[in-house]
Structure formats: structure tokens, C-alpha cells
């Protein structure tokens, strides 16, 4: 449904620089975390979030979706994924810069950073109406940032989205969520926080002309101090180790032999 001319949508899309999904993860020699001296790219779920924001503008029209802004928190190299978001269709970007050696911020710190950015945008023309972000990052797999952000803001939320439709005439978003055994449709009032699932869409590739144009799009640089957010870790990682190597199994010639071996291993029927 076409929204009324009085309401415009400004979409904020948080994206994260993570170890590329194709890289084999290894623990670093100090056993303090994983080896990060490998290829990085945009978190795949965040790619889906960027794509969905662009598709909403294509569906509703540029006169309705006024702006799409990407934001990331991380070291200087994180600007690369912002450029990727700009190349596929985002209008502007914000880089909350951290030192190269700084640990990745915890979900609550990320949520508070996004909350501060949204408050900074204020209630004027740049007011954020919708936040679309990946349901989780593939490096920590925590999957709680979107929910924390909605709680801090007091906004509607829809998680694990596989379909998003905007009814701007009513100021609502209809989201189909992935649940065990099927889908659940929820209707949320704007403003809203949406987290994306894998089946929501298939992200597009950036064309070379758009990659060149992205270099001219604005990227605002901020620090945690500018936003009044404390990134001191609340959790301490004691040690990271690889799981034990799997050993090969054995073959049995009959069910009787299988049962006998299970009994030897101490496996009993429930």
C-alpha cells in the first residue's frame, strides 16, 4: 500500500565486519580467541539486511524511503564493508571507529551505540523509523543485539524475518517470522527493529560503476566517546580451544553385535 505523503521512512542498517564465511576458523596460538589474520567481509545476515532496505525503497519508491544509512563499529578496515553497503544502494554511512587492537564490542554496547545514533538523529527529517539488521553475526553467534536495541528504545520488534511488508498508510510493518514448523505473521507499529533470516532475500552484487560512485558517498566518522558509550567488556574470555578431533567409528556385522557393543560402552535403554 502506498504511504501517505506526510510520512517518510529513514532506515538504519547496522553491518559488521566479520571473518569471511568461507574461511576455516582456527584458534590463535595464545588461545585467547580465533586467528583474525584472515579474509574478512560483511556478515552474511547483514548483507541480507542491506538488501531488504534497498528492496523496500524499490517497492515503496524513493519518495517514501527517504534514506538508507549503514553503520558499523570497528577498526579502520571496517570502512570497506561500509563502502560495499554504499555500492549496493545505501545513501550514507557512519563509522564508529575503534583502534585496530580493540576487541569486538559486546552486544549491549553495540545496542547502546545504535540507540545513541538514533537519539542523535532526533525527531526531525533525519529521524530513524526502522532498523534492519542481521539476526546474528557469524563470528560470535549471539543473536541478541536487535532485541536489546528494541528494548532500550521501547520500539516494536520482529525477529527472524523471512518477509517484510510496509503498510505506511497505517504506520505498520507486517513481518513473517521463521518459527519451528512454519511461519508466524506479526504486525508491528512504526518505529520498528527487524532482524533478518536467511530466506528473506538474496543479496545483489555491486556493479563496478556503483563501486566507483560509492567512493563519493559520505561516511561520517565518530568515536564511542562522541556517543557517550562505554565499551569496557563485561565478559572475560578465559581460554579458547579447538574441539577434540573426531575419531573413526567401527563397523558391526549384525544388530546383535551392535547391541553388545553399546552395552560394553555403558549405553542403556531409556
From TrEMBL:
Cofactor: binding details: Binds 1 AMP per subunit. Binds 1 FAD per dimer.
Family, as annotated: Belongs to the ETF beta-subunit/FixA family.
Protein name (Swiss-Prot/TrEMBL): Probable electron transfer flavoprotein subunit beta
Phylogenetic lineage: Eukaryota, Fungi, Dikarya, Basidiomycota, Agaricomycotina
Electron transfer flavoprotein alpha/beta-subunit N-terminal domain ranges (all copies): 32-231
PANTHER family per the UniProt record, alphabetical: ELECTRON TRANSFER FLAVOPROTEIN BETA-SUBUNIT, ELECTRON TRANSFER FLAVOPROTEIN SUBUNIT BETA
Location relative to the cell: Mitochondrion matrix
GO biological process: amino acid catabolic process; fatty acid beta-oxidation using acyl-CoA dehydrogenase
Any GO CC annotation of this UniProt entry: mitochondrial matrix
Claim: NADP is one of the keywords in the record: no
Cofactors demanded by this protein: AMP; FAD
Alphabetic keyword roster: Electron transport, Mitochondrion, Transport
Function comment: The electron transfer flavoprotein serves as a specific electron acceptor for several dehydrogenases, including five acyl-CoA dehydrogenases, glutaryl-CoA and sarcosine dehydrogenase. It transfers the electrons to the main mitochondrial respiratory chain via ETF-ubiquinone oxidoreductase (ETF dehydrogenase).
Amino acid at each position: 500500500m502506498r504511504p501517505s505523503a506526510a510520512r517518510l521512512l529513514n532506515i538504519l542498517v547496522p553491518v559488521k565486519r566479520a571473518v569471511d564465511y568461507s574461511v576455516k576458523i582456527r584458534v590463535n596460538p595464545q588461545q585467547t580467541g580465533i586467528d583474525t589474520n584472515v579474509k574478512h567481509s560483511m556478515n552474511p545476515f547483514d548483507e541480507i539486511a542491506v538488501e531488504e532496505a534497498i528492496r523496500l525503497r524499490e517497492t515503496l519508491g524513493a519518495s517514501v524511503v527517504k534514506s538508507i544509512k549503514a553503520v558499523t563499529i570497528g577498526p579502520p578496515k571496517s570502512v570497506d564493508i561500509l563502502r560495499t553497503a554504499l555500492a549496493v544502494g545505501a545513501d550514507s554511512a557512519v563509522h564508529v571507529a575503534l583502534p585496530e587492537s580493540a576487541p569486538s564490542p559486546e552486544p549491549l554496547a553495540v545496542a547502546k551505540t545504535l540507540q545513541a545514533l538514533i537519539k542523535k538523529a532526533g525527531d526531525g527529517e533525519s529521524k530513524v523509523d526502522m532498523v534492519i539488521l542481521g539476526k546474528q553475526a557469524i563470528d560470535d553467534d549471539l543473536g541478541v543485539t536487535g532485541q536489546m536495541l528494541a528494548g532500550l528504545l521501547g520500539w516494536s520488534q520482529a525477529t527472524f524475518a523471512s518477509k517484510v511488508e510496509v503498510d505506511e498508510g497505517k504506520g505498520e510493518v507486517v513481518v513473517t517470522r521463521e518459527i519451528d514448523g512454519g511461519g508466524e505473521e506479526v504486525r508491528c507499529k512504526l518505529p520498528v527493529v527487524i532482524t533478518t533470516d536467511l530466506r528473506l532475500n538474496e543479496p545483489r552484487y555491486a556493479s563496478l560503476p556503483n563501486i566507483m560512485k560509492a567512493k563519493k558517498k559520505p561516511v561520517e566518522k565518530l568515536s564511542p566517546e562522541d556517543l557517550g558509550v562505554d565499551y569496557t567488556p563485561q565478559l572475560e574470555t578465559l581460554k579458547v580451544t579447538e574441539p577434540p578431533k573426531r575419531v573413526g567409528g567401527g563397523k558391526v556385522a549384525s544388530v546383535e553385535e551392535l547391541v553388545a557393543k553399546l552395552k560394553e560402552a555403558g549405553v542403556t535403554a531409556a
